[in-house]
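Hey, quick one: can you model this chain's 3D structure?
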Amino acid sequence: MAQKRMNLRSIMKIDSECIQIQDLDLLLERILLEARRVLHADAGSIYVKETVEEEGIKVDKLAFKYSQNETLQKELPPGQKLIYSIFSLPLNDKTISGYCGLTQQLVNVPDAYNLPPGVPYSFGKSYDQISGYKTTSILSVPLKTAEGNLLGVIQVINSKDDEGNVIPFSKNGEFLISHFAVNATMALQKAQLIRTMILRMIKMAELRDPKETGTHVNRVAGYTVEIYDRWAAHNEIHEDIKEKFKDSLRIASMLHDVGKVAISDIILKKPAKFTAEEYRIMQHHTAYGAALFDDTQSALDILSQEIALCHHENWDGTGYPGWIDPVTGATLKAGDNGKVLGKKGSEIPLAGRIVSLADVFDALCSRRAYKDPWAEENVLKEIRDLAGTKFDPELVDIFFEILPGIKQIQKRYPEAG
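Sure thing. Here's the predicted structure for all 417 residues.
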């Protein structure tokens, strides 16, 4: 009983931390991590319910979002992350997680290779065969709202005892994960609401600028967080500081081009390259975006302003808009010729330097009205060639360190059609 009370206190502390996370993707990863910790589970996955259209019919599926595996992670070089497939499962009784989501009931499987007779679901052995990992015990729990709506499924794998032996998940484990799932669901609802509001703002920008799509900003945000995560590891940033910064950073980076709503459609929707005058006008979107966050109330506001203003600055000082007041447009620093000076090097906030790299990479890889996507080898050469002029060279090195993770984000957020 004393152990159960201690576990519940631990869960309550985790709940209070999760509810403070604003970004949906970071929250999903944290929920999975904490669920594993509570149950001493070696591995796990988290799925989110999504409705997709197939042959004109709307179908509910479980979209695989994140996976963690302590055993396989230890086999990787320090700092490298697991790379896993991006897929979705039908919401039916053929798989363990699908059955859990369909019935909205917890499913406890002591041995995945010896399922009880009569159960409708089966265990797919293909992942174990590819990875060399042995899945034994599985516990799946639905994430459902108080109104009975399914948000997703947490599936944890291979509970371990104090000696590291794989054991079945206990009844106490079922109790703990069920309690945890209730509060995790509330945190998810809040994060989904924030994500929906952000994407509505992006949709408004997309109506003005067809390049500013939800998938584009999700990719840029994903790259940005991965680059920062590795930068923070290199620079020994404390874990608590890193996680809080990542939470604001991901949301703020999605809003990097929100200032484009103030630019004329004649320029935004032009299916060709800009003239010199059009390009000059387009440059104002950085100041317009930063001005939206002038009344800073939080760390998120500060980061959003920095990124909107500085994501087109160049490492060598040749970018824009330079040292200006985004609200008044007044020049803050000018050269001998009287022209505004560009920010350079570490004068550019870290978040702006990261988003600059992430945004250009995604633009080069994407189709535009005036260009086809570049070949991957040409994109990577361009990024490398621009280190020290356009981009922070340290960040370029980090980008290539984490390139497999960057490519995985591309797969997670493909362009429609």
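One thing worth noting: The longest strand covers residues 41-54.
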